Amino acid sequence: MKGLPNLSALWETAISIIPLTAILAALQIFILKKPLHNVRDFIIGFILSVLGLHLFLKGTTMSLIPLGDSVGRNFVIIEKKWIILVIGFVIGYAATLVEPGLKALALEVEELSQGAIPHMVLIHGVAVGFGCGMTIGLLKILLNLPYIKVLVPLLLIVILLSFFAPEPFGAIAFDAASATTGPVNIPINMALAVGLASVIKGVDPLISGFGIVGLTSIGSMISVMILGILTKI
């Protein structure tokens, strides 16, 4: 009986993947009239994807989210607030370096640009922007600033830079922003922000604790566009 909750959670993960898999397989077989090249590998891959996603979600719930929340709640013992901002930048920067989606994007960009945009340069550029966005998000929480007062200036900067950033950096910036919102960054950064907001007097964690993922994405966009302008210069 103890294993029933785990089996139930595993089944919930499976039914979230089954529809997409079924649609793609149906398109391949019935619409495009193409066979599945290796049915055995397809079935094994599907099983591994279900198990992998289930284990990742379970592990995140047990480790990253509680750890991020605990760190955020204990930030208040640091008297010098600028240290909190530095720590936030380091966490955002380091977490971005291991995002699998960003690595895949950077390698694709390097290949299509024939090495003109090295993948490590793009990854570190995005990581710097993400760390800056994380810093701005934590500063917003510490000062209890309205979200709109932080968001609007950043969006104006994005619009302004889009006029000067050479192609394809404008398009890459948008993709890089989405690539940073992956399985490593979201659990850590969101839990960190909510944890910090929940222990600051006069700050509503529901209002101030969320939105930091969006700010980090905008920070990544800005850094990629600036990188494009610097390469042009």
Classification by helices and strands: mainly alpha
The total of helices stands at 10
What fraction of the residues are assigned to beta strands by DSSP? Answer: under 5%
Order of helices and strands: HHHHHHHHHH
Fraction of helical residues: over 70%
Query: Between the first and last Cα atoms, what is the distance in angstroms?
Result: 66 Å
Unreliably modeled segments: none
Average pLDDT, to the nearest integer? 87
Q: Tell me the count of domains.
A: 2
**Main sheet overview:** none
The tally of strands reads: 0
> What is the overall shape?
globular
Based on CA atoms alone, the radius of gyration comes out at 21 Å
Describe this structure in a few short sentences.
The chain is mainly α and 233 residues long. Helices cover 80% and strands 0% of the residues.
Report on this model:
The protein is mostly helical and 233 residues long. The protein has two domains: 1-62, no CATH class; 78-232, no CATH class. It is 80% helix and 0% strand. The chain has ten helices and no strands. The protein has helices at 4-31, 39-74, 81-97, 100-112, 119-143, 147-162, 169-179, 185-199, 205-208, 212-232. The mean pLDDT is 87. InterPro entries: UmpAB (IPR011435). This is DUF1538 domain-containing protein. It holds the Pfam family DUF1538. The chain crosses the membrane at residues 9-30, 42-61, 82-102, 122-143, 150-174, 210-230.
